[in-house]
Each structure stands twice: as C-alpha cells, then as structure tokens.
Task: structure prediction
Amino acid sequence: MVMIGLIAVAGLATAPSQTEITVYNSGFGLVKEVRSIHLKQGRQNLNIEDVASMIEPTSVSIHSQAGSNPFSVLEQNYQYDLISPQAILNKSVGQKVRFVRRFGTQRDVLEGTLLSSPTSVVASPDGQNQSTYNGMVIRTDDNRIVLDPTGEIEVKEVPAGLISRPTLMWDIEAPTAGDSTVELSYISQGLNWAADYVVTLDGIGKSDLQGWVTLTNNSGATWDNAKLKLLAGDVNRVQPRVNRDFAPMLASGAAGGKAGFAEESLFEYHLYSLERPANVRNHETKQLTLLEGHGIPIEKKLIVDSITSQYYPGEGEIGTGDVKPQVRLEFTNDEKSGLGLALPKGKVKVYQRDKSGSVQLLGEDQINHTPRNERISLVVGRSFDVVSTRKRTNFTRISDRSVRESFEIEVRNRKESDETVTVLERHWGDWSITERSQNFEKLDSNTAQFMVTLKPNEVRKVIYTVETKW
Result:
C-alpha cells in the first residue's frame, strides 16, 4: 500500500507524431510510433489507450529516444477487460441493481442484490475460452428470489477494472522531471496484405501487367498519415496461443491509390515502401497500385500431358482416353520485358479484348514469390479446338523386371490457324525409347517431350515404343 502511494500518475501519452507500419503477408503487422510524454521525477504510471485491440502484448517495446529524458520500465501491463453490458453485470454480482419493467404504460421498479452472474467463462478442451449463459438471480429488498427478470437494468457505478479501450500501462521511474520522446513498437494480428495481378493480352503476342496490393486492417486501430511498408517473404513465426476471444470482423470499403512503392531487398525477403503517407483505417480494405508493365512479350503453350488429367496406367491396362491440352502463358520477369521487379505471391487474372473492344476473362492462376529474371508460367485453362487422344497400342513383358510398351497420341487441330502442341510423355524406372515417329527431347529422368506443329484442321500422330527396366 505504501508503494502504491508513492506512484505519481503521468497520465496518457500524446498522439503519435510519427507512425510506421510494416505489414507482413502472413496476417500480422509491426507498428512503430513516436510519442511525447511529460515525466515527473520518481515513480509514475504511463498509459497509452489507442493501440490495436489485437496486439500481441509480449511484443511491446518502449524506450526513450537518444537525447530525451530517460526512464526505467519497472512493469508493463496490457488491460483488455472492456466495458460492455455483459462485463458490467458479471462484475456486479453482490452489488445493488435495479430492474425497470414496463407493462404497457405501467412501470414497475424492482430493486435488490444480484446473486448470479448472467454468464460464466469456462475453458474448452482446445484451451479456448467459451461463454455460457446462466441467467440472472436477484434477491429483492423484501427477500424475494426473482429468476431471470427482464427489463432495463441499472447499476450504481461501473465496476472497477473495466476500461473503455484496450490500454497499455507502464510502471516507470524517471530520475528527473521533463519532456521525453519515446519510441513504441508492437506486433498486432489482424493486418494482412496480398498481391493481385491483371494481365491483358493484345492478341498479337504482347501483354500489359498491372499489380495491385490489397491491404486489410482488422486490428482494431486506425493510423493516419502513416509510413506504410509491405514485406514479402516466408517469415517464420512461433504461433502464439491466443487467450482472448476475438469476434470475427469483416473488411469493408475500398480505397484506390497511385503508384509509388519503392522495392528493396531485406535479408532474404523483399520490402515495398509506399513513398507517400497513407491512412490505414480499421475495418477497411485498401487497394494500392504496386507496379505496371507494358508491351511484355508473352508466349502461349498448348501442352498435352496425360498425367495431369488421368493416373498413370498400370501393367495390363489399356491407357486410352481423351486429353484436353492445357493452355499456359509464359513470360520473363526482367527489365527487357518491361518488368524486372521482385513480384510478391498472388493471384493473376488474364484478360483479352474481343472484337468489340470489351475485355473478357480467360483464366486465373496463382504465382509464388518470384524474383527478377525468373520465368513465370500461368495455367489459364484448357483448349477448346485442339484435342488429343492417347492410347497404349501394345504391351509385352520381356522379363520379370522389364516390359515393352507402344503408345499413340493423336493430336487434332480444329482451328483456322497454325498451332504448335507440346506432348509430354512420362515414364519411370530405367526407360529408353527404341522406336519413334519423330524426334523428342528428354527433359528429365521421367519426361520425354515431343513437339507437334499442325496446320489448320490437320491431324498428326506421335507414335513410339518404350522399354522399361526396374
């Protein structure tokens, strides 16, 4: 008690004069603020209310800037027992309450002592807290027991310990009085960002690419005029155990932005810094332009690969079936192609304009984090007018550990233009192609590639025999 009497109250810190937010693409953010406080000499309390409600308390760091009045942190607390009707009633057990019940125009006042908390919190097997509704029990002033009354509930005062907003509280000690500039940093859940890309084809082998950043803030805090940075990379974190119940929050709204991200390498990651201040509001989804590229050379590939559409046929199986060619678009992320920036992982939508000038969606795929000068390959769909049929025409067992098989892949071009089709055939073990209708390239230990060029309405067959040993 004597110790508490020695603590002066410094009160609340001022609003941050500088704010920087680094948002990671795995669902959290690092918040850094600069604030001013007035210190009294000796031991005192420092409270900061306007922090994110999804803060990780163990990540909080506070210290005085160089040249500022120094202080020592003796204790740090995070209070999140927020004022709500349920919380007030739960903490008012044993206290006087009053119920006002209305029956038409009649008003009935019931006064007494609250004997039972309307809700209780119990730990579930998975370690998360769950609330159970128990109802209320009141002993009236004339000793009646009333169960679960309904009506307007009044209490004399807000119970101690409840606060209106989540608050960081420090017990600090300053050797001298004076103003101090402090740096506060903490990690908060509820912040996330993702990259989305739009590729628009011009129909003659070139394309435009626009990259967007979609930033979502469900942290419970709003930051104005903040320096915004986005970190792309697979950052390893030990998943914290959450001991508080967070209600699900939905993002709403959208805000556009102009290009202005500067990209830099940071350790084994990439950092994108917005070169202008940004307002990051709670319950908001904000979209910002990340990058643009124009006139990007793009290559279309039609790939017949039976393993992507059916299982590899086992011994004695016929192995026939239609295989719809996969359609891929490929380009290189380099300066020569109009890009050359490290591309964060995200969804890519591909469009092309029709004869009337309207854009039509061709397909959608996802890319991983892609450094500069790497090749990007997008699966956009399956071909409509180029079709193929694959069958095994012969199977012979040579010995207990070897077989001979023959295959025929028929490719038909029903389009009015020339098409080149890549036929991929896969085999395992020690295999070799002994007979073939055309040349092939062995891409790796399991894959043979045949290139088939077809004129309009032409039909061609790839025929080969393979011997496999194991």
